[in-house]
Amino acid sequence: MTTDKKARKIAVFDSGVGGLTVLRELYQQLPNESILYFGDTARLPYGIRSQSEILQFVREIIIWAIDQDVKMIVMACNTSSALALETVQSEFDIPILGVILPGAKAAVQKGRRIGVIATPATVTSNAYRQAIQEMDAAVQVWQVSCPEFVPLIEQNRIHDPYTYQVAQEYLAPLLDQRIDTLIYGCTHYPHLAPVLRSLLPPSVRLVDPAVHLVKSITQELELLGLRNPNLPRPTRFCVSGCPQQFASVSVQWLGYTPAVEPTVLPVIETSETANLSLGEGRRS
């Protein structure tokens, strides 16, 4: 265990490689911070899961991450942020940040006709629409569910003609509404930037919530006095599925082939056993 809390790692998790967009921003904005990255690749995509499943997965990941002696947990996953953030923030005594509020705030500052592309679960939750309209009720919001995007990205098929075709179909109703701003409502989606930009009018502004999430992380670390002033340790990558698959897909965005550890999470069968498992992590 690291006695200096400032030197402890920040845990970042996602269903797969999507959270690398957040990791990339962490490297740029907070270069001194050490990172523990977890990809729940055995259970992706998250976007077609129920709220109870997502909550169970998130609790398992948080319990595991706390056991790795981290100082903060970052949900680099819109689906988890939409369906589980408030619940686990009330259950665990560790800072836990999600991606939706920072993304919604940035979008409201940019546009009045906002499109959101997201996973089915995030769209169904209405999390982005609610967050945006709580900030400014006059802003109009249209959401489109994009179930095929995450599997295509995880299969490294970004530049397939089929991916362009799917993207065209997903964007069509948003273009019909003459959106002026588009939110990447899933951290995987910035990987599709070349595809989406080729299909969107130049006037449409793209909002990557990862950029704004890391600004929030910076503010939270400052507030808590947890910024690391020293050099970071190497990023540790862990996955629940195939390490080789994750390494081969992520190399193009990391610029190197990461060493990836296979990881077994603690099993929680019900919300009741989850409560028993929280131990000292639970708020009094």
Q: What does the model show?
A:
The strands form two sheets. The chain has a six-stranded parallel sheet with strand order 4-3-1-2-9-10, sandwiched between helices. It has two domains: 5-99 and 211-281, Rossmann fold; 101-208, 3-Layer(aba) Sandwich (Rossmann fold), CATH 3.40.50. It is of the alpha/beta class. It has helices spanning 20-29, 51-67, 78-91, 100-110, 120-125, 127-135, 149-154, 161-176, 193-199, 209-224, 243-254, 271-277, and strands at residues 9-14, 35-39, 70-75, 96-97, 113-118, 140-145, 181-185, 205-207, 236-239, 260-262. Helices cover 46% and strands 16% of the residues. Substrate binds at residues 14-15, 46-47, 78-79, 187-188. Provides the (R)-glutamate required for cell wall biosynthesis. It comes from Lyngbya aestuarii BL J.
Rounded Rg: 18 Å
Give me the strand/helix succession. EHEHEHEHEHHEHHEHEHEHEH
CATH class of the largest domain: Alpha Beta
**H/I helix tally:** 12
Cα end-to-end separation: 23 Å
Strand content of the residues, in percent? 15-25%
Taking the sheet with the most strands, its summary is:
6 strands, parallel
Overall CATH architecture of the largest domain: 3-Layer(aba) Sandwich
* The number of domains: 2
Strand tally: 10
- Secondary-structure-based class equals alpha/beta
